Amino acid sequence: MRVCIIKRKQLLEFNNNRYIFGGGASEMNLEELLVLEKHLEIWICQIRSTKMEIMFKEIQLLRNKEGILKAANQYLLDKMEENVEFTNIQAVMGNIPYPLTIQNEIFQI
Predict the structure, then answer these.
(1) Which terminus of the chain has a smaller tally of CB atoms within 10 A, N or C?
(2) Distance between alpha carbon 100 and the CA centroid of its chain, in Å?
(3) pLDDT tens, position by position, 30-66
(4) Residue 107: band (very low, low, confident or very high) from pLDDT cuts 50, 70, 90
(5) Diameter of the chain by CA atoms?
(6) What is the rounded distance in angstroms from the CA atom of residue 83 to the CA atom of residue 76?
(7) What is the DSSP track for 1-62?
(8) Under a CB-based contact definition with an 8 Å cutoff, are residues 32 and 16 in contact?
(9) Are 32 and 15 in contact (CB under 8 A)?
(10) Which residues form the K-box domain (predicted)?
């Protein structure tokens, strides 16, 4: 009896593999089709679970990249502001004559 059950399971697995990889379902009986259906449901569930894990990992990687890019962007914005402030100071200082120079108006006739 036990040997028959094991043989039957092996035959079902063989048939499942055969039908999955190109055999015809028209040769399967109802029990074999039900077993195959159950296996397919389990495989689909496992595939979806694996797909979701991969997608969550990719989302996390993208969030990390986003954080890095935001930090780099902020750093560059800060540098630009420093350069603008420095340029503005130079422009203001350019309008003030250097204290040791003599203005041209004194020497005009």
Answers:
(1) C
(2) 62
(3) 898 898 899 999 999 999 999 999 999 999 999 999 9
(4) low
(5) 130
(6) 10
(7) -HHHHHHHHHHHHHHHHHHHTT--GGG--HHHHHHHHHHHHHHHHHHHHHHHHHHHHHHHHH
(8) yes
(9) yes
(10) 1-86
